[in-house]
Design a protein that fits this description.
379 residues; alpha/beta; Rossmann fold; 4-stranded mixed β-sheet; two-stranded antiparallel ribbon; 8 helices; 8 strands; elongated
Length: 379
C-alpha cells in the first residue's frame, strides 16, 4: 500500500490536500489493481476489481474535486473540507481491506495447491476397497465413518446443507442422526448448489431465489460467538422454533411446498409398510396388507444402463444449471410395482427403506429403486 492517509488531514492548503490525496489513491489503484490512465477518473474505470457502487461514488467525488480545483476558474477551495477528508480516508481504508482480502485468498489457493486432492488420485471405480493408482489408500479408507467416533466425542457443531435433488440428501440426514446434539440440517427443494427449484407436481424447475447465505451465517454466528445465547438473531428461522437457527432439521415438503422443522429424524414415527405382490394376471402390485400378497416372480433383461432421461437428480449434481426434468419414465420399461390410489392425501417425510431379494446373472449389479408419486390419469 501507499503512504498513510492521516498525514494529509492537517494540510493547510486545499490544493496540496487534494493533490496528495488523489496521488495516494492513484498509487493504490495502479500498484494493487493494475489501473491505467492519466487521472483518477480513468484509473477508477480501468482498475481490475469489482468495487462497490459506494466506493466508486466516493472516489469519483474526490476525482471531480481534484479536476475542478486544477482546471476550473474560480474554484479555489473545497466546499466541505471535512467531508472530503472523510471520503478519502474511507476510500483508502476500503481499498486496503480489498488488498488484504486478495492476499488472503492467494494464500488459501497456495495451500490448496499443495494439498493432496483425493478425487485426483482415487481411480474412478465403484468398489470401495480398490486402491488408488499411486497409493495404497482406498476410497473406503477416506470415508468419514472412520473418524465418526472422534466427531461424536468432540461434539463438533456441524451444518449439513443439502437438497432433495442433491446426491448428498441421504448423507446429510444420516450425518445428523449420528451427531444430533449440536448439528443442524437444511434440505430444500433444489439440486446441488441450490440453483434449481424443482416442482414435482409440474415436473419443471426454475432458478431459486432462496437466500442460501444467511442460514449458514446464523449457524456459524451462534457457535462462534461466546455470548450467542443473548445476541439477537439477524433473521427469523425458516420455521418458528426456539432453536431452529442452529439445531434440528429444517426440511422443505415437496408438493405441499412448505418448510417444516423437527428435532428428530425421521420426523414422524408413523411407519407405513408396503409389500411387493404379483397378481394372478402377472401384474406387479404394491399392497399395504400382508395377507393380500401373492407370490410370483418377474424377470428383466438388462442391456446396459436404462436412463430415465432428461436431467435427473443424479445428473443435476454436475449439470447444476440445466433444468431438472424427468422425461422417459415410461420408455425405460422398468419393473414397476403400483399401489391402488390412496384414499386421502399422503405425506412422506423420511427415508424410504426397501428390502429386496433377487437373483442376478451378473456378478455385480447396481440397483436403483425409485418411490414415485403418480398423478391420477384422466381421459
Amino acid at each position: 500500500m501507499g503512504q498513510s492517509s492521516s498525514k494529509y488531514v492537517h494540510s493547510s492548503n486545499d490544493y496540496e490536500l487534494v493533490i496528495k490525496c488523489s496521488k495516494e489513491l492513484e498509487y493504490i489503484l495502479e500498484n494493487e489493481f493494475g489501473a491505467t490512465g492519466r487521472g483518477l477518473h480513468e484509473k477508477i474505470s480501468s482498475a481490475n476489481a469489482p468495487f462497490s457502487a459506494e466506493l466508486i461514488k466516493q472516489m469519483r467525488y474526490l476525482a471531480t474535486i481534484r479536476n475542478k480545483l486544477i482546471h476550473e476558474r474560480g474554484f479555489d477551495a473545497i466546499p466541505d473540507r471535512a467531508n472530503f477528508i472523510m471520503k478519502f480516508e474511507k476510500s483508502a481504508q476500503e481499498l486496503e481491506s480489498i488488498v488484504k482480502s486478495r492476499q488472503g485468498h492467494g494464500n488459501t489457493n497456495c495451500c490448496i495447491m499443495n494439498n493432496w486432492v483425493a478425487t485426483d488420485d482415487i481411480t474412478p471405480v465403484l468398489y470401495r476397497n480398490t486402491p488408488s493408482a499411486s497409493t495404497t489408500v482406498s476410497a473406503g479408507e477416506l470415508s468419514l465413518h472412520n473418524v465418526l467416533k472422534n466427531f461424536q466425542q468432540a461434539q463438533v457443531p456441524t451444518l449439513f446443507y443439502s437438497g432433495w435433488f442433491d446426491a448428498t440428501a441421504r448423507s446429510a440426514l444420516q450425518g445428523y442422526c449420528n451427531l444430533p446434539n449440536k448439528s443442524k440440517v437444511i434440505i430444500g427443494p433444489w439440486n446441488h448448489g441450490g440453483l434449481q427449484f424443482f416442482d414435482i407436481d409440474q415436473n419443471k424447475s426454475q432458478i431459486t431465489e432462496f437466500d442460501h447465505f444467511t442460514p449458514v451465517l446464523e449457524f456459524l454466528h451462534h457457535h462462534f460467538e461466546s455470548n450467542s445465547q443473548t445476541t439477537p438473531c439477524e433473521q427469523e428461522p425458516l420455521v418458528a422454533s426456539d432453536n431452529a437457527l442452529y439445531k434440528g432439521v429444517e426440511y422443505f415438503m415437496l408438493g405441499e411446498n412448505r418448510w417444516h422443522h423437527s428435532d428428530i429424524w425421521p420426523a414422524y414415527f408413523n411407519r407405513q409398510s408396503w409389500y411387493l405382490s404379483m397378481e394372478t394376471s402377472g401384474t406387479p402390485m404394491l399392497t399395504n396388507t400382508l395377507s393380500h400378497v401373492c407370490g410370483g416372480q418377474v424377470t428383466i433383461s438388462v442391456n446396459g444402463q436404462k436412463s430415465i432421461g432428461g436431467n435427473s437428480r443424479w445428473h443435476a449434481t454436475i449439470r447444476i444449471r440445466d433444468p431438472i426434468m424427468y422425461t422417459h419414465w415410461e420408455e425405460c420399461h422398468h419393473i414397476t410395482f403400483t399401489s391402488m390410489p390412496v384414499d386421502a392425501p399422503l405425506k412422506i417425510a423420511g427415508t424410504p427403506v426397501v428390502t429386496l431379494y433377487l437373483s442376478s446373472s451378473d456378478t455385480d449389479a447396481d440397483l436403483f429403486v425409485y418411490l414415485v408419486a403418480v398423478a391420477p390419469k384422466t381421459k
